[in-house]
């Protein structure tokens, strides 16, 4: 995969212009380093631009567990691509391994994070995680649920703090067998 270079100098220039455009003085003491800081911050929060999440799933081990694996309540931060404001919440990632192809559970959270650290839509983020696991591991099924609050609906626009958007993407047996889907959704909702 070709690396996409994050051009910090360009971000600095753009932030300087935004500060001017809102009527601020970018040279005043408190703002002098702001363009640099924002550029560094964007490099950090958009680190997913430079990752290939499929690579995290290359390392699998053979463990004959062909039943549900669910990692739930994974904290997730992303940036809404419409407003470049954060949306954040929890992801729940489940799969049923096939043929003993099992991955380290941390890899599932790495996949979710890599897709989250890009300008995103919650629906696309949810499907990308599901498709990545489905294509790489060819499991019996994958289910991904994300619940998130969007700052663009909280601090501006409709101003509805607390509104949670829930998205799901199911593949394989979770799509074809309602009982299996119901089981995973109930485990996700269950407070342990
Ligand atoms: N489906 C979806 N919509 C999103 C997501 N993040 C933000 N949005 C919505 O994207 C829409 C953009 O709508 P526009 O009318 O172009 O922008 P806007 O005038 O700023 O919209 P308002 O937020 O309603 O003020 C808004 O309804 C947002 O709530 C997301 O992850 N998925
Ligand atoms: Zn938004």
From TrEMBL:
<dbReference type="GO" id="GO:0003934">
    <property type="term" value="F:GTP cyclohydrolase I activity"/>
</dbReference>
<dbReference type="GO" id="GO:0006729">
    <property type="term" value="P:tetrahydrobiopterin biosynthetic process"/>
</dbReference>
<dbReference type="Pfam" id="PF01227">
    <property type="entry name" value="GTP_cyclohydroI"/>
</dbReference>
<keyword id="KW-0378">Hydrolase</keyword>
<keyword id="KW-0479">Metal-binding</keyword>
<comment type="pathway">
    <text>Cofactor biosynthesis; 7,8-dihydroneopterin triphosphate biosynthesis; 7,8-dihydroneopterin triphosphate from GTP: step 1/1.</text>
</comment>
<dbReference type="GO" id="GO:0005525">
    <property type="term" value="F:GTP binding"/>
</dbReference>
<protein>
    <recommendedName>
        <fullName>GTP cyclohydrolase 1</fullName>
        <ecNumber>3.5.4.16</ecNumber>
    </recommendedName>
</protein>
<dbReference type="InterPro" id="IPR001474">
    <property type="entry name" value="GTP_CycHdrlase_I"/>
</dbReference>
<keyword id="KW-0547">Nucleotide-binding</keyword>
<keyword id="KW-0554">One-carbon metabolism</keyword>
<dbReference type="GO" id="GO:0005737">
    <property type="term" value="C:cytoplasm"/>
</dbReference>
<keyword id="KW-0342">GTP-binding</keyword>
<dbReference type="GO" id="GO:0008270">
    <property type="term" value="F:zinc ion binding"/>
</dbReference>
<feature type="binding site">
    <location>
        <position position="83"/>
    </location>
    <ligand>
        <name>Zn(2+)</name>
    </ligand>
</feature>
<keyword id="KW-0862">Zinc</keyword>
<feature type="domain" description="GTP cyclohydrolase I">
    <location>
        <begin position="11"/>
        <end position="188"/>
    </location>
</feature>
<dbReference type="InterPro" id="IPR018234">
    <property type="entry name" value="GTP_CycHdrlase_I_CS"/>
</dbReference>
<comment type="subunit">
    <text>Homopolymer.</text>
</comment>
<dbReference type="GO" id="GO:0006730">
    <property type="term" value="P:one-carbon metabolic process"/>
</dbReference>
<feature type="binding site">
    <location>
        <position position="152"/>
    </location>
    <ligand>
        <name>Zn(2+)</name>
    </ligand>
</feature>
<feature type="binding site">
    <location>
        <position position="80"/>
    </location>
    <ligand>
        <name>Zn(2+)</name>
    </ligand>
</feature>
<dbReference type="InterPro" id="IPR043134">
    <property type="entry name" value="GTP-CH-I_N"/>
</dbReference>
<dbReference type="InterPro" id="IPR020602">
    <property type="entry name" value="GTP_CycHdrlase_I_dom"/>
</dbReference>
<comment type="similarity">
    <text>Belongs to the GTP cyclohydrolase I family.</text>
</comment>
<dbReference type="InterPro" id="IPR043133">
    <property type="entry name" value="GTP-CH-I_C/QueF"/>
</dbReference>
<dbReference type="GO" id="GO:0046654">
    <property type="term" value="P:tetrahydrofolate biosynthetic process"/>
</dbReference>
């Amino acid at each position: 995969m070709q690396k996409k270079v994050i051009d910090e100098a360009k971000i600095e220039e753009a932030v300087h212009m935004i500060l001017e455009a809102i009527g601020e003085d970018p040279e005043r003491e408190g703002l002098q380093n702001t363009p640099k800081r924002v550029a560094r911050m964007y490099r950090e929060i958009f680190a997913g631009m430079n990752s290939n999440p499929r690579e995290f799933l290359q390392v699998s081990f053979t463990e004959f567990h062909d039943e549900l694996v669910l990692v739930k309540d994974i904290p997730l931060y992303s940036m809404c691509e419409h407003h470049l404001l954060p949306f954040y919440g929890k992801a729940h990632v489940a799969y049923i391994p096939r043929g003993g192809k099992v991955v380290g559970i941390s890899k599932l959270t790495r996949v979710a994070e890599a897709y989250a650290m890009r300008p995103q839509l919650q629906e696309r983020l949810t499907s990308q995680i599901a498709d990545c696991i489905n294509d790489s591991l060819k499991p019996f099924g994958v289910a991904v649920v994300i619940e998130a609050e969007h700052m663009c609906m909280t601090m501006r626009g409709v101003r509805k703090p607390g509104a949670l958007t829930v998205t799901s993407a199911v593949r394989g047996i979770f799509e074809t067998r309602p009982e299996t889907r119901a089981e995973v959704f109930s485990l996700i909702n269950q407070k342990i």
